[in-house]
Amino acid sequence: QVQLVESGGGLVQPGGSLRLSCAASGRELSLYTMGWYRQAPGNEREMVAVIGSRANPMYGDSVKGRFTISRDSTNHTVYLQMNSLKPDDSAVYYCNAARLTSTRTYKYWGQGTQVTVSS
Description:
- The protein is mainly beta.
- The chain has no helices and 11 strands.
- It has strands spanning about 1-5, 10, 20-25, 35-40, 45-50, 60, 65-70, 75-80, 90-100, 105-110, 115.
- The strands form 2 sheets. Strands 2, 4, 5, 6, 9, 10 and 11 form a 7-stranded mixed beta sheet that branches.
- Strand 7 (about 65-70) and strand 8 form a beta hairpin.
- It starts with a strand and ends with a strand.
């Protein structure tokens, strides 16, 4: 079992920045790919950024060049630095932990944190 707790959301003006944090707890965290997803009202949940324990990070097309995902294995925290924010970035942001073994898929979600970009 993995528990995920997000923080750092809020209201920001267009062009501003926010940093989201996801504190993870549980066993074998280093084996999980960690990621951020978001969901706006009326839209499906979409991938924002993911990062494995060794692999290079991957980003959704709409955030490339503006968002940066990072992972601190010492304190089991994943960060999402969001710069040059746009109103279209407004959504609930969810932290995700995923692991695929030969017999089972593990997937956990945090409770979400609201990000609102508005003047």
